[in-house]
Amino acid sequence: MGRFGQVQEGLGLLLVFWLTAGPAQGRHPLPVLWLMPVGSGSGGENLTAGVAPAVRLALQDLKKQPPPLGNYEIQLQLLDSQCDPAKALKALFDAVWAGPQYLLLFGGVCPPVTALIARALPALGLVQVSFAASAPGLSNRKLYRNLFSMVPSDRVLNQAAVKLLQRYKWTRVGVVTQEGPRLSEMKKDLIRQLLKAGVHVAVTESLSGDVCGRLKKLKDEDVRIIIAQLEDEAVSEVFCCAYRLNLFGAWYQWIIAGGGAAGWRLGWKFSGCTANSLLVAADGSVRLQVRELGNANTPGVSGRTPQDYQDSYLRQLIQERSEVSSLYSFAYDAVWVVARALSQATEGPVFFWNGERMTSIELVQFQGPGPAKDQPAVLLQHRHISLLLYIVISSAAGVTVIIALILLFFVIINHKHRYGVCNFIDTLQQTPSVRN
């Protein structure tokens, strides 16, 4: 084990001690497994450090609860999943084999790990509670009946996208998806929902390698409405290519889904793009995201409203002097999908979607006179010709019409003579020839 691995293991043990420290005071212990990657995530963020203050806050709330909840003390045993399904499954089996008998499994950030572990839960007699199990496939109760998620499935993002298309009568779209297990699963679910809603998917592209080359296919097919399923770190690169390809403006509408709630993160410099170029390309785009907290004003199980919980969480961060790059929250209330429009470098809410209905907040500020057209418009071109050419062509057409009318009149007047000649010819053909 390298020095970095030893440091990570030491931090994990320290974290477990920090979360479970304190006298039990006669409370009954409840052993709980906590499955988390101790190291950094794919985006470089420390996932465990971001969740630990929220867990600490929940444990403090539990101590304040009256009986029977207040009679118990949760004892967390941290398992480092390393975002590797095989290593996570081995760590889980080792923990269950060594004991004690655990009440449930908490956590699960990496979708491949969660999918594998959740399939094994019934055999192990465990129930898993996850704050990040949002992949559409994990909502299948037949396969994952012991998995309970405190966040809505990514399917609601796709449902919100379909409702937005229906609202503006867009029936022809293009779909671009960043490569990855979670977003690939989102793409499959989105395609199914679009086909069910009668929306034609003109182009589907996976963003890998040459991103600009992939987006150019959208322009070649004249796709105007683009649904992009991206993680936050890829948004800037996509809009940089959109700027270079002139794939933005009043003729186009970008709908971004799939990223987190941290923000657009525009401003990173790519080859040929400045921060202002990215803002120009992203102007008018709509981002679909899951709200971290509900908007209800009634207290939840913890005795706090969602806003109170967020304030307590921030105070906890300040008290512990923790530096985190992401904020996770417990679902004490319903979590909605919020659509935000980026207009002139500022974001504003457009509508909320709660899985059943859409609540309008304000209209989207389109760059053109109205919503972009999902179909290429038929252009009527006006051409000017000289007056002399117009007179010659009109005169020739008039003479042709007059001659045609004269011929028609002549045929009608002389149709009887035509029948007489025909009868005379038939008589001659029927008379037997006379030989001298």
Question: Can you characterise this structure?
Answer:
This protein is of the alpha/beta class. The protein folds into two domains: 3-149, 3-Layer(aba) Sandwich (Rossmann fold); 155-291 and 335-360, Response regulator (Rossmann fold, 3-Layer(aba) Sandwich), CATH 3.40.50. The protein is built from twelve helices and 13 strands. The protein has helices at 3-20, 47-64, 85-98, 111-124, 155-167, 181-196, 211-220, 232-244, 275-282, 306-320, 387-413, 415-430; strands at 28-36, 72-80, 104-107, 128-130, 147-149, 172-178, 200-207, 225-229, 253-257, 285-290, 337-343, 346-353, 358-360. The strands form two sheets. Strands 7-6-8-9-10-11-12-13 form an eight-stranded mixed sheet, with helices on both faces. Strands 2-1-3-4-5 form a five-stranded parallel sheet. A hairpin with a 4-residue loop joins strand 12 (346-353) and strand 13 (358-360). Helix 2 packs across helix 10 (306-320), helix 5 runs parallel beside helix 6 (181-196) and helix 8 (232-244) crosses helix 9 (275-282). It is elongated. Residues 1-18, 321-335 and 343-348 have low confidence and may be disordered.
Which structural class do the helices and strands define? alpha/beta
Query: Rough shape?
Result: elongated
* % residues in beta strands: 15-25%
Please count the beta strands (DSSP E, at least 2 residues each).
Answer: 13
Q: Give the distance, in angstroms, between the N- and C-terminal Cα atoms.
A: 132 Å
Mean pLDDT: 75
Strand order of the largest sheet: 7-6-8-9-10-11-12-13
CATH superfamily of the largest domain: Response regulator
What is the correct CATH architecture of the largest domain?
3-Layer(aba) Sandwich
Number of helices: 12
Helix content percent band? 40-55%
Largest sheet composition: 8 strands, mixed
Rg on CA atoms, Å: 35 Å
